[in-house]
Amino acid sequence: MNSIGCFNEMFLLDARRYLNDSTFSKFKKKGLFLKYLSIRSIPGLRYSFWMRLCHELQGKKAWMLLYGFAINRYNHYKYHYGISIPFNAQIGKGFYIGHFGCIVVSPATVMGKNVNISQGVTIGVANRGENAGVATIGDGVYIGPGAKIIGAVTIGNNVAIGANAVVTHDVPDNAVVAGVPARIISMKGAEGYVNRKVE
To answer: Nearest CA to 134 among 174, 107, 163?
Structure first.
């Protein structure tokens, strides 16, 4: 599959998280340009469009002109929406940005599929200590507004991180964590917070 084909597949899987069944069915049938026009009112998906495109085209000489244009649009929406998620970060399919504003993610971050990220979230680097490094985030994770994940922590699958929680230690599968520092408050997972998952 060529670069545009790979990009289109990832973008469609992201779009599935935002759109209900009937809307998504119509959306799939449109050409790429019409798809983009139809998401103008969905900031998170619009940002993902350019982020995914830049990720797919980087380093490919045959697509340098399109890559240059995509970088320009990516940078525009990064500042316009206040979302700083580097396009070279490893982000799985079905990525969902719930609300825009003050989102900062380290380029070394690794995220699984079906991850939800909210406004005010920081996923940052710890430069020293036992947790030096960046987080690895599993599948089906919900990261609430204002949450901070700092250092080389491992966030398991189906985890819910509460609003304004500060996570500095590993979180097991199906945990719900909250507080500063974040502690496990239940094992009910992210059910109800991460919807329309893709496979």
So the answer is: 107
